Amino acid sequence: MNETSQLQPATAPPHNASEAVKAHLELKGVTKHFANFVAVDNVSLTMRKGERLALLGPSGCGKTTLLNIIAGFIEETSGDVVIANRNMVACPPHKRDIGVVFQNYALFPHLTVYDNVAFGLRSRKFKRGEIEAAVARALEIVRLEAYRDRYPHQLSGGQQQRTAIARAIVIRPEILLLDEPLSNLDAKLREDMRADLLAILDDLAITTILVTHDQAEALSLAHRVAVINAGRVEQIGSPSEIYERPATGFVASFVGQSNHMKGRIASTGSALEIDVGGQRIKSTVAPEVAETGQEVLVFIRAEKLRVDRTFVGGDNDFPGKLKHVIYLGSEQRLLIETSVGLFTAIQPVATGKPPFMDGETLHCACDARDVIVIRAR
Amino acid sequence: MSDIVFDPPMKRRRAVDLRRIALVAPLLMIFTAILIIPLVLMLSSAFQRISLSTYQVTERFTLYQFTRFFGDSYYLGLLWQTLNIAGLTTFCCLLIGYPFALHMWRAGPRERRALRLIVLSPLLISFVVLNFGWLIILAPQGMINYLASTLGLTSQPWPLLYTKGAVIVGLVHVHLPFMILSIANGLEGIRPEVVRAAASLGAGRTRQFFRVILPLSAGGVVSGCLIVFATTSSAFVTPVLLGGAWVKTLASVAYQQIMVNLDIPFGSAISIILLFLSGILTFLLVRLTTWLQPHLADPKSASS
């Protein structure tokens, strides 16, 4: 999670009053059926000009299908896609003015880096000099000036990725679509590339939709995140809203590492008290309407638990037996069997303290403001 | 220690090599027996000269057969006719085959399987039988002429059989599967995302086809043309069955020289000339492929 906070977007979406009112991209009840399977189920959302939205969800949730509908590669069963006030129904992809960076980059293998990037400009019948200048500028942005005469197969994965970005942005599209842009890169390169991508996107301020199953990618690159499950938008909000105030059980369990429990509201007041298997848990993060006796889901983020041999103070205390320590270098994961279930706690590796041993009794402390309560469906 | 470390891999490698040779040996032997040896024999006899009254070799090494061929406008005409038929057949196969392969590539898996079966169907039947089929259709009392005279379109039967057209029709029918399968193979190497990328970059259907699909399938097109041209330029049965004595090709003349006139050196020389021409053509077409697909030219410089 540390890397996420370091990579917060440097620019916020423009707050220009007239721009803010006008939606740049609008989806109205977009639905896609495949035979008897609903891939995208009544999705509506709007984006402002220059905004970056991440569609986050597990594989097969319909996020790529939605992207393909926006690009025009797949025809929606019902609903409307409106880009810059133009309804895109029955508009073929080549007339939509959209830049796409594909998951496998989909570079033209028979063309050099230069010709790949110039392809879109040539389709649009730009003049030779203009093409030359625009391609040079795009290659400069992605730092590939030295590779312009190479063929895609002569490039590394990261260079191919940057070529794909240059090719998509050089046409100055209304909307930029990124399909799992970093998933084909290995872990170390992915982090470097994520910082690069953030810098490039900040620079361009193009309205961008990013499809990903990687929450770090979504939280770090986007202004807003739409969490998608089974073809539906579960929640849409800023990265911190999604992370701190998940609206549904799916969002709470999909984004971040949490411990979840089922319980019943025991008392309401300034703080809720939830009865989970006999134990009372205090929470100040409550759903809008909370009534005594209502069934709820309780989530506690793994990194919000403070674990020690004694109770270190806080609103809630979960004593339990340590089952496993997973050492990850910068942090450690503790699996603790408590009376309300198996807890995972992410802790810094403490120095100057004897390490925790399997079988030890430990206390997990957490504050009421870190206990997320969601109404059970 | 070092012996123990280094010895086993070397032994293993040698064992693998032997096994590999064992795998290709049967084919290698068959190739040597039915291809290399006859070819060497043919090559040596092409440079001989025999007396056509005694059938004795009169000269051991001479270019007589070749000067005889290239000095005679009859044979040059035959050469032209052969290349003409092969070229037209290849062109027709390409013209019919490419759209079909393209449709097959765009079709769903079910339709694709059905179409593939249809494409392969001529190969399930001996092409002699296929040619006899055309004989029945094109003959003076055949299907087309029967229909035409019944409908009153003509009083005289059209001369359809024993024409260049009949030969080309027969050859196209037999060779179309090879063309379609080659092109389909080339098309299948294209990732659908690449075409989508072209569309997202503002390329309409035509530009998608000429700038992306066609260049990327050029390898399949060239190998399809190569197979069809090489086999039709040496085709023998179809020209004889559907062209009769009126449409002669080099292959049938070579056959006649060797089997009827017993002039083995001249027949060999004709075969060698034919072989040499398809060799040159193969070379040119391979060069054309690398020119069309520069990214396949130097796989060594790939960094990933």
Write up what this structure looks like.
The complex is a heterodimer of chains A (377) and B (304). By secondary structure, chain A is α+β, with helices and mostly antiparallel strands. Chain A is 25% helix and 34% strand. Chain A folds into two domains: 173 residues, P-loop containing nucleotide triphosphate hydrolases (Rossmann fold, 3-Layer(aba) Sandwich); 119 residues, OB fold (Dihydrolipoamide Acetyltransferase, E2P) (Beta Barrel), CATH 2.40.50.140. Chain A has ten helices and 20 strands. Chain A has a six-stranded mixed β-sheet, sandwiched between helices. In chain A, helix 4 runs parallel beside helix 6. The longest helix of chain A has 18 residues. Chain A is globular and about 75 Å long. Chain B has 304 residues and is an all-alpha fold. Chain B has a two-stranded antiparallel sheet with strand order 1-2. The longest helix of chain B is centred in the first third of the chain and has 45 residues. The N terminus and C terminus of chain B are likely disordered. Classes of the chains: A alpha+beta (377), B mainly alpha (304).
Please summarize what this structure is.
Chain A has helices at 2-6, 17-21, 63-71, 113-123, 128-141, 157-169, 187-204, 215-221, 239-244, 249-254; strands at 25-34, 37-47, 52-56, 78-83, 86-87, 98-101, 175-179, 207-212, 224-229, 232-237, 258-267, 272-276, 279-283, 295-301, 306-308, 316-327, 331-338, 341-348, 361-366, 371-375. With 377 residues, chain A is α+β, with helices and mostly antiparallel strands.
Q: If you consult CATH, what is the topology of chain B? A: MetI-like fold
Mean pLDDT of chain A: 88
Distance linking N and C termini of chain A: 29 Å
CATH class of chain B: Mainly Alpha
CATH class bucket of the largest domain in chain A: Alpha Beta
The CATH homologous superfamily of chain B is called MetI-like
Total helical segments of chain B: 12
Low-confidence parts of chain A lasting 5 or more residues at pLDDT below 50? 1-10, 14-20
CATH architecture of the largest domain in chain A: 3-Layer(aba) Sandwich
Query: In one word, what is the shape of chain A?
Result: globular
The CATH architecture of chain B: Orthogonal Bundle
Structural class of chain A: alpha+beta
Which strand-content bin applies to the residues of chain B?
Answer: under 5%
> What strand line-up does the widest sheet of chain B have?
1-2
Helicity of chain B, in percent?
over 70%
The average pLDDT of chain B is 87
Q: How many domains of chain B? A: 1
